[in-house]
Amino acid sequence: MKLKKINATLGLLTILFMLLHIGFSVYSYLTMYYNPFLKMIFAIPFMVLVCLHAVCGMMTVFMQKDGSSLNLYPKKNLRTILQRLSAALIFPLLILHINTFTLMSKCAAGGHNFFIILLIIAEILFFGVVITHISVSFTNGLVTLGILTSESVRNKMDTVIFILNGIIFVISVYAVVKGQVIMFLH
């Protein structure tokens, strides 16, 4: 159980740093102001937390057999499946996300607009996967840490989290797509 609590804490800290990273990225794309130093200040601790959370999560699932039998929790199946599936999709999309700017620059230089559009779609998919993972995982972390004990409060909090994450998704997609279209398709 200690490993689950560590993972829940890492997950919640990761969300905090993700919000800082998204906030700076949205600001950068909307204002076309980019400061590599500020980008790294937000991105590096975020990536360290993501990696620690991922390793700890895999250890929890595979070494402690936590959640490996989905039929034990029939009401939680969809949430657990979405949580595991989104976690598995994050890393391949994250590698692409990290390299997107460079790939788009090369595509723009070569006049390959079709590939730029594919990269923009991949970015939107990445944002959706991350937001899905957070949406289905946030209250799980609070439950694991003993902060949230009421099912009623959890359901209300889930609704708020899904709405907030939907708003974050729309704002992020708008800012990034607008910025990438301006930089690479004009």
Architecture overview:
The protein is mainly α. Helices cover 85% and strands 0% of the residues. Helix 1 (2-31) runs antiparallel to helix 2 (36-63). The radius of gyration is 18 Å and the shape is elongated.
Task: Annotate the secondary structure layout.
Elements: H1 2-31, H2 36-63, H3 77-110, H4 113-144, H5 151-184
Helix pairs in contact: 1-2, 1-4, 1-5, 3-4, 4-5
Mean pLDDT: 90
Tell me roughly what share of residues is in helical segments. over 70%
Major pleated sheet: none
Could you state the oligomeric state of the chains shown?
Answer: single chain
Distance between the ends: 53 Å
**Overall morphology:** elongated
Uncertain stretches of 5 or more adjacent residues: none
Q: Strand share of the residues? A: under 5%
Gyration radius from CA atoms, angstroms:
18 Å
The count of strands amounts to 0
Q: Supply the number of helical segments.
A: 5
The structure class reads mainly alpha
Give, in order, the helices and strands: HHHHH
Write out key terms for the chains shown.
elongated; mainly alpha; 186 residues; single chain
Brief account:
The protein has about 190 residues and is an all-alpha fold. About 85% of the residues lie in helices and about 0% in strands.
